[in-house]
Input
Amino acid sequence: MSKKSPARSLRTGRLERLASVGSVTGRVGASYLWSALKRPFQSESTREAARLDTHLRNALRIVESSKQLRGAFMKMTQILSMRDDLFPAEAIDVLSVVQSSVPPMDHDLIRRRIEKELGAAPEKLFARFEPEAFAAASLGQVHRATLRSGEEVVVKIQYPGVERTVKSDLQNAKALIQALKLVARDVMRNRDMDYRGIYEELKSRMEEELDYQLEAANIELFQQLYADDPEIVIPRVVAERTTRRVITLGFIEGYKIRDVLAPGVDPSLKDWAVLKLYEITWQQLLCFGVVHVDPHPGNYLVTHHPKLGILDFGCVRVLPPDLRDAYRDLNRALLEDDRRLMRDSLLRLDFLNPDDDPRPMREILRRLFAPLLVDRKVDPREYKSMEELSVAVQRGLQAGYWKAPPHRVFLDRVLLGIDGYLKLAGTVANWHRIYKKWVYSQPRDVSALLKARARRIAR
Output
């Protein structure tokens, strides 16, 4: 991990954070207003160039502010990086850099947090506790440690005061979302957007990711889902060293997936890693209805065996059976070109209103899923996914609609994330056959596992 000066504390006061949020909100809003005022005096080509420049500058402003504020504001930036209906692809690329590039917290703060949560200082709880953070992100940071038994573990500690910043940011975020109406008016050509949905999406994400007991329950759920798969590794939860704000997990030795996909690595290992990742993504969506929806490069490891290690379960989406089955039907309709089933499943998934013409959405989906609909080997690098998605959004707008139910946003994120890994690896495979296998697979009844998860959370 690169050396960075430790931050003493989070800005936790609502007024202090409001001033920071207000500053970026004002600059974002003013830039879109100025852009709109100039537009009538510009040529079409100049207008398009100026619009893109405005989006890029505002994306940079939001990113820089999120690095300073962390907490909910950084997480909101990560959510915005999934909103292709608000920003063009170029601005999405800027927003998506907000991952773990924040300075670690001062060790004394972290030490006091562990004492408060676990009842003793780290040196008394662990045989060894590394004072320097192993990784740092928006809501917490990770330290390596060793249990008295000799087991290597990692300890994720929530930043002191982050809950207060989240409560402040959830209210202050409404101001930024109001400014983003100007973005939507620009991109969506004055169409209304579901701003309340954006806010509720952020709120639910924050509440889930602040609760490490929920993450522990998610880990145990995935351990059961993959109990019979010898190629998947899920970390062990050390329950006696875990609370709502501290979670201790068994350490998994391996290489980050992005390092495995780098030039010079054995091509057969690259192929194995992306094929396994691709396989479990469709398995989770179409068979389990339980999806790990954070494709951050640090969340997947490849061990020496090889096995695929899955980390960080703060963001898991459980699809109700009717929603999972609607996705199964939608994908079956794509494979079979069944227009009636496609319209029905799009309505059930809330991608269409009852009076909408389904034909534009059908063409959009066939365009997006083109590499999966042909029974032959395909090089993923030949398919420009973000460009196709941008075209799809524009076609949806031209057709008079572009609905984005909350489940669609998270699934877009994971599918585009996996697509990025496929392109990095350059693996040429018959992706159609893997996809088809899971479309026609027998769905797994996970109701008993979800009930056990609910009991675990309630404890």
Summary: The chain has three domains: 14-98+162-208, 106-158+211-251, 254-459. The radius of gyration is 23 Å.
